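Here we describe the complex-level prediction in full. Unlike the single-chain runs in Section 2.1, the two entities below were treated as one system.
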Amino acid sequence: MDRIVFENVSKRFLLSGGRKLLRGHIRDLVKRADHECFYALRDVSFSLGEGQSLAVIGSNGAGKSTLLNMITRLCPPDDGRVTVNGRVSAMLELGSGFHPDLTGIENLRLNASLFGMSRKRTADLFEQIVDFSGVGEFITQPLRTYSAGMMMRLAFSVAIHIDPDILVVDEAFGVGDQAFQAKCVERMQAFRKAGKTMVCVSHAADTLRKMCDRAMWLDRGQVILEGDLEEVIAAYQGRTVARA
Amino acid sequence: MWHGDYRFVLQNLILKDFKVRYRNMSLGMFWSLLNPLIMMTVLTLVYKRFMHIDTPGYSVAVLCGLVPFNFFTLAWSNGTTSLVENATLVKRVPIPREVVPISSVLSNCLNFLIQFGVLFAFTFIFGYRVSRAWLWMPLISFLFILFVLGLVLATAALDVYLRDMRYVVESANTVLFWLVPIIYGFEVIPDSFKELYSLNPIAAMVMALRRIIMEASAPAPSLVWKLALGSVVTLAAGWIIFRRLEHRFYDHL
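The structure predicted for the assembly as a whole is:
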């Protein structure tokens, strides 16, 4: 079964970043100016089945994050069609729903619910999530007393305990110390073995090798190459080196 | 589709708003109680001592106006900016977007409840008693909250596109203070305007509340109908506006 299907998907953004003030809207009415826009994604097509995992690589601004946001349905396409079958869990900017004044426990519950976990499941997995994060007795303290690493570990730990069909990961591997990173990689590999679908964005080729079998190289919103992970990484690195 | 636990999310977001607000105040909820008391004292002073008008139970009448009005202004202005203030949430976490403004309004409802406590305390101090008419209070409060929800859904969505919206709301709140019977009674409204005036759900809420507490009788059926109509229409309109605008939130946040 295809978990994710993109058919000729495009996404444009206005260079003005949208009109935010009344004066901008009025000016538009008067001038009827055409806005310059750029393509974050242009005519992207691919499909991904159960048990497959795709690495998305490319330089900054290539459209990688936009692609992930489309899978989570945060961002609707302008053209083309995105079909997603199954529950999606997204590790985009970890800790997006966190609040510094709430304690670890409160943030854990809030984040779990935002990620779509039920009340019961959150209660059942509570101990496990805290254990995995390794924040220990800090869990009862307000989040502002946490180090950056501890906060990310907690966020990561919540995200990994959701049981999705599709996992979307944006640069979330660089979290915590080496021991924690190893734990995360192990967890993701188990996830993959369980036949789940994954889409990862990372600049670290070594990490991607542990997670993915396929890769897609995006440049300025267009797919340059898609296929076997090693081939795409080699081509991408060759091109980047040649350019530099 | 989002497969999460809708009520669990709402509960957590409401608690978050509420805890964050009060944890940063050394006196906590005391401030919620203080604000209407100060306003009531000042208004009573001006009315009785400066203007020498002696209406029986004026302080309670003022509180009946202030409590719903305070809830309205706070919920409306907080709700309007809620999507923009929680932009990271709206942009990065795939939740049904309407939970953000809805939870903002509902967390203000807790505040509303506390202020009701103040109102009840003064009701008894001034010698009014509980009557069967009080059973109307949950219904009219519920309708009133629906009205605020509808209004907030619309303005919160608009605020994403037009950041000026919050200033429109602020000005509207200042104007509304005078268009709701807080410092005066409904009887001062000229007859030709009475119909129109009571179509305003905030005014209807205050009028109904005064009648329940101060006259110990049920609000006029026509008034309750007006409140119900205003609330349902506003909620439906707010919902439709929100649904139409939410597709492009991502681009504008």
